[in-house]
């Protein structure tokens, strides 16, 4: 735990998602809230997207962080702010508007299962 999901629109042509995941994972680790081996990250390129009811020219990046409940609102707000700043730093040169959003959410600890299998 935690899980970090990065979504980015296809019109961010030169977006380096693997590098972005490394940067965002480091921010997560540097927060002191998680062990390095606990952070799981993935990226999804969105080939079909809209902003509003028909604008496909606006690009966006969205990060969702799901973590087990138990952290304070202040910790989650600080983490979200750090991720937002790091997310901005991952942007390539763009032609047009880009929206950046971050959502840090709690998962119910009682409903989460994890097992680490030996390799």
TrEMBL record:
Signal peptide start-end: none
Q: Which SUPFAM superfamilies does the UniProt record give?
A: Tautomerase/MIF
* Family annotation (Pfam families): CHMI
Q: Which InterPro entries match?
A: 5-COMe_2-OHmuconate_Isoase (IPR004220), Tautomerase/MIF_sf (IPR014347)
Q: Which domain of life is it from?
A: Bacteria
Q: CDD domains under this entry?
A: CHMI
Record-given protein name = 5-carboxymethyl-2-hydroxymuconate Delta-isomerase
Organism in which the protein naturally occurs: Jeongeupia naejangsanensis
Q: What is the lineage of its organism?
A: Bacteria, Pseudomonadati, Pseudomonadota, Betaproteobacteria, Neisseriales
């Amino acid at each position: 735990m935690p899980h970090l999901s990065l979504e980015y629109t296809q019109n961010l042509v030169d977006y380096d998602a693997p590098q972005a995941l490394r940067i965002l994972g480091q921010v997560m680790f540097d927060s002191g809230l998680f062990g390095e081996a606990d952070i799981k990250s993935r990226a999804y390129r969105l080939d079909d997207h809209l902003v509003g009811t028909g604008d496909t020219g606006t690009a966006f990046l969205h990060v969702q962080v799901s973590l087990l409940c138990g952290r304070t609102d202040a910790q989650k707000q600080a983490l979200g702010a750090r991720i937002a700043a790091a997310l901005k730093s991952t942007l390539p040169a763009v032609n047009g508007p880009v929206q950046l959003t971050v959502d840090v959410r709690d998962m119910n600890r009682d409903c989460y299962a994890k097992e680490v299998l030996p390799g």
